[in-house]
């Protein structure tokens, strides 16, 4: 099978939905971080863990798909790199929240939302493996 044929594999139904769902949960996590009262701490914690796990699974399934399609788990494509930066930044936000540093967690949550938007737009702006840019 060629790389192009492998791009149309079953991974198309696994990786993008995980990645997109992770992006949605990042926004939910940040929204509830800013809105949270005492009764919503478990919701914020669960949303943060879900965002972190889905972003992680998006990275891993993307790496598996890349290995199948191109024979390499990682190529430093702009979207891969931005998603890795997003994952690390989201990890910092989650740790700040769990360490009871709400102001830091809120700023990091806001930055995670901005980085998510940049990551999404990167496919249309920067030429790479995930590129829709001409």
Report on this structure.
The protein is an all-alpha fold and 134 residues long. It has one domain: Four Helix Bundle (Hemerythrin (Met), subunit A), CATH 1.20.120. It contains 5 helices and no strands. Helix 2 runs antiparallel to helix 3, helix 3 runs antiparallel to helix 4 (78-98) and helix 4 (78-98) runs antiparallel to helix 5 (102-125). It is elongated. The relative contact order is 0.15.
Compact summary:
Helix content is 75%, strand content 0%. It has 134 residues and is an all-alpha fold.
What is the strand and helix layout of this fold?
Layout: H1 3-7, H2 15-35, H3 41-70, H4 78-98, H5 102-125
Helix pairs in contact: 2-3, 2-5, 3-4, 4-5
Which descriptors apply to this entry?
134 residues, mainly alpha, Four Helix Bundle (Hemerythrin (Met), subunit A), 75% helix
> What is the CATH top level name?
Mainly Alpha
Q: Give the topology string: H per helix, E per strand.
A: HHHHH
C-alpha-based Rg, rounded:
16 Å
How would you sum up the major sheet? none
The unreliable regions are none
Number of distinct helices: 5
The assigned CATH architecture is: Up-down Bundle
Total number of strands: 0
Based on CA inertia axes, which overall geometry fits? elongated
Terminal Cα separation, in Å? Answer: 26 Å
Helix proportion range: over 70%
Strand residue percentage: under 5%
Structural domains: how many: 1
CATH topology: Four Helix Bundle (Hemerythrin (Met), subunit A)
Structural class, judged by helices and strands? Answer: mainly alpha
């Amino acid at each position: 099978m060629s790389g192009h044929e492998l791009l149309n594999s079953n991974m198309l139904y696994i990786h993008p939905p995980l990645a997109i769902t992770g992006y949605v949960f990042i926004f939910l996590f940040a929204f509830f971080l800013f809105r949270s009262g005492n009764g919503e701490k478990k919701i914020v914690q669960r949303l943060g863990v879900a965002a972190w796990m889905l972003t992680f699974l998006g990275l891993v399934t993307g790496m598996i798909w890349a290995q199948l399609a191109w024979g390499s788990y990682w190529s430093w494509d702009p979207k891969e790199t931005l998603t890795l930066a997003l994952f690390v930044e989201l990890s910092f936000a989650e740790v700040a929240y769990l360490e009871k540093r709400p102001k830091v967690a809120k700023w990091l949550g806001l930055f995670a939302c901005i980085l998510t938007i940049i990551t999404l737009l990167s496919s249309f702006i920067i030429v790479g493996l995930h590129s829709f840019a001409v």
